[in-house]
Amino acid sequence: MSVTWNDNVPIYRQLRERVVAMILDGALHEGDALPSVRQVAADYQINPLTVSKAYQELVDEQLVEKRRGLGMFVTEGAHAALLKSEREQFLREEWPRLRARIERMGLDPEKLLAQLPQQPDKRDS
Known about the structure:
This protein starts with 10 loop residues before the first helix and ends in a 10-residue tail after the last helix. It is elongated, with a radius of gyration of 18 Å. Strands 1-2 form a two-stranded antiparallel ribbon. The chain has two domains: 11-74, Arc Repressor Mutant, subunit A, CATH 1.10.10; 78-115, no CATH class. The relative contact order is 0.11. It has helices at residues 11-25, 37-44, 48-60, 78-104, 109-115, and strands at 64-67, 71-74. It has five helices and two strands.
């Protein structure tokens, strides 16, 4: 499996973000087992300690739990917790820059939204 890593961000952080994205996207559900440290290390050709560090961050954040002899599993409520933190981060960090850019270009946010293709509402409000 070939993966391109960003040289500006430690690999363990990028790996953590991949797992977070898999939880948010529904590829990993609450109660699902994460791939083993050895398997991920072999697949991505990285040091198992790097994988362990990424997984430990997820454990520290209570998104994943260790089960002795069984592996790592996505915790109950992980999806909701991640969704909440991702939304807060977006509103705090990304939205102000995006809004400023929209205003600089003289765009009307309501017209922009009206131009989006209609999709079923998938919000978890």
